[in-house]
C-alpha cells in the first residue's frame, strides 16, 4: 500500500545529539519523525517539551508526528503549532474535553490525532472519529520505549478500520509500541498504515538499512 508510512521515534535516539539524529532519520526512507512528549504525570516518565521540538524543527523537513502523553494537552496546542508540529496526537484518557481539544488542534492548523491506551476501548473514539486525521492505537502501555508488543491491541486496529469504512472516513491508523520486523506485518494486516518504531530502529548502527527491513517485512 502506497500510504504506508514509517515513523522513527526520536525517544530512542541520543538526546544529546538531536540534530545529528534527525539527520540520520532524514537519510532513511522514513516519512515521519515520531516525537514523544511525556510530563511525568500522565505517564511515569519525562521527555521534553515544545521548545525542544522548535529547535528540532530547524534540522528536519520531515513530518513531525507529535504524540502528547501529558495531562490536559489542550494547554499546549498553540505551543506545538508554533514549534512546527505537523500532527498533534492526544489521548482520550488525558482530558475531559477530547472533542474540544481536537477542534483546537485543527483550528491551530495542525492535523489532529487521537490515541487510546491498551486498556481503553475503541468505543471511546467513536464520538471524535469524524474530527481526526489520525487514530493511534497504542500497542504498549505508554511511557517507555523498548517494551513488548501487546498483540491483543490489534483487534482494536481492525475495529477502527471497520468503523472508518462504515462511516466513509479517511483518517490514517497508526500503531506505536513494540513495532519491529516481526510485529509490523500483523499491524498492517489488521489495518494500520503508520508504523512508529523506536528501539528496533535505533539499536542498529545503520538506520537506512534498518528502516528497509521494516519495508521488507511489510511486503512478506
Ligand atoms: C511509548 C512511546 C513510543 C516509543 C516506542 O510510550 O509512545 O513512541 O518510543 O518505542 P518502541 O518502538 O521501542 O516500543
Ligand atoms: Zn509515541
UniProtKB/TrEMBL annotation:
Pathway: Carbohydrate degradation
Record-linked InterPro entries: Aldolase_TIM, Ribul_P_3_epim, Ribul_P_3_epim-like, RibuloseP-bd_barrel
Residues reported to bind substrate: 9, 67, 143-146, 176-178, 198-199
Cofactor: Zn(2+); Mn(2+); Co(2+); a divalent metal cation
EC number: 5.1.3.1
Record-linked HAMAP family: RPE
Binding site for a divalent metal cation: 34, 36, 67, 176
UniProt cross-references to PANTHER family, sorted A to Z: RIBULOSE-5-PHOSPHATE-3-EPIMERASE (PTHR11749)
Function of the molecule: Catalyzes the reversible epimerization of D-ribulose 5-phosphate to D-xylulose 5-phosphate.
Single GO BP term: pentose catabolic process
Pfam families noted in UniProt: Ribul_P_3_epim
Textual note on the cofactor: Binds 1 divalent metal cation per subunit.
Name this polypeptide is given: Ribulose-phosphate 3-epimerase
Name of the gene: rpe
Species in which this protein is naturally found: Streptococcus pluranimalium
A Gene Ontology molecular function term of the record: D-ribulose-phosphate 3-epimerase activity
UniProt entry tagged with the keyword Isomerase: yes
UniProt-annotated catalytic positions: 36, 176
